[in-house]
Amino acid sequence: MPLFSIFHSILIIFILQLLCNGTYSKLNLKYAILRQKQASKLQNDTFVNQQRIKYDAQKTMRVIFYKNNTKTLETSAYDDTYDLNGSGCSASEKFAIVLHGWIQSCTDEWATSLIERLSYYRGGCVICIDYSVVASSSYMRLYTNFNTLTGAITSIILALIKQGFDPKRGYLFGFSFGGQLASAVGRNLYPHHVIESIDTCDMAGPGFDPIAVDHSKAGKHVQCFHSSQDKGTFVYSCHRNIMLGSCGLKQPSVASQLHLGSHGLCVDIYINTFDYPFYALNSTPPECFTWHEAAKIPDGYTVGYEENFDGQVTGQIFVPTSLHYPYNLSKKQLMLLSKNNG
C-alpha cells in the first residue's frame, strides 16, 4: 500500500505538471499572439502617422512651374496630376527641378537667378519645389523631417513621370539641405527611374556627416560643388567633386561677402559659371590634403552646368576662386598660380 500510495502521488504530480505546462504553453501562445497583434498595430500606427506627416508636409509645399523664365503655374504638392496646359510645359521637353535650403524659398535671389539662367541656357520646363513652411523653423526640426520631405518630393517627381516626363531629360539642383534632398530623392527613384544629371552646391554636412553615402547612385551624372568647412559635407562620393576656392573649404571672396560666407558663395559661384569661365587646375594643390582620386583635367577645362557630361572627367577637381565678383580666375592668373604651386 505505501508503495502504491507513493506511485499514485507521483502520477498525480506528473499529471498536474502536464496540465500546468499545457496551460503555461497556452498562456505563452496567447501572449505571443497578443504581442504580435500589438507590434502589428504599432507598425500600422507608425505607418498611419508617417502618412499623416507626409500629407501635412505636402499640404504646405508648393510646386511652381516656369516657362521662358515666367511663372506659369503654382499648385499644391499634394496634387496627383498637374495642369501641364496651364503651366505651358510639355512632358516631351527637358525639365529642371530646383530645391532650396534651410530658411530659404523659391523666391530667394539665388533661386530666381538660377531659374533665369536655366531657362535661358537649358530651356524646357523649370520647376521649383517650395517647402519654405517646413524650412522656416529650426534646423533640427527641418532635419527630423528629412525623410518626410524626401518621400514627398519623390512623390511629386513620380507624378510628373506618370504624366510623361522622361528622367533622361531631367536635371535636379539642390543647395545646402536641398543638395542632400536632391541626392536622397535620386537614390529613392533609382533603379526604376534614373535622373540624367544632378548638381548640388555645398551639400549640408551637419546631421548628415560622417555617415558615408554613395551620392553617385543618385543619378547618371552627379557633380557636387564644395565651398565650406563649417556647413558643407565632407563626404565626397559624387562622380565629380568640385573643390572651390581653397581646397573646397574656404572662399577668398568671403572677405568682401561676409553676409554670404563660404557656404552661401557656392550657389553664387555656380550661377556665375553659366556666363564666366571657372578654370580647373591640372593637379591637386600641395596645400590640399586628399585621399580621394583626383580627376584627369584637360587643358582649359572649365566647371559648371554641363549639358553634355564628359564621363572621362571624374573625381576631385580643384577650382581656385578670386576675391571679387564674379569670383573666377583668368587663364593668365591660373597659369601663375599653377607655376607657384609647382
Automatic annotation (TrEMBL):
Residues 48-210 form the Lipase domain. One of its GO terms (molecular function) is lipase activity. GO terms for biological process: lipid catabolic process. The gene is LOC108040888. One of its GO terms (cellular component) is extracellular space. Keywords: Secreted, Signal. It is found in: Secreted. The keyword Secreted applies. Residues 1-25 form the signal peptide. This is Uncharacterized protein LOC108040888. Pfam families: Lipase. InterPro entries: AB_hydrolase_fold, Lipase, TAG_lipase. Gene3D superfamilies: alpha/beta hydrolase. Belongs to the AB hydrolase superfamily. Lipase family. It comes from the Eukaryota.
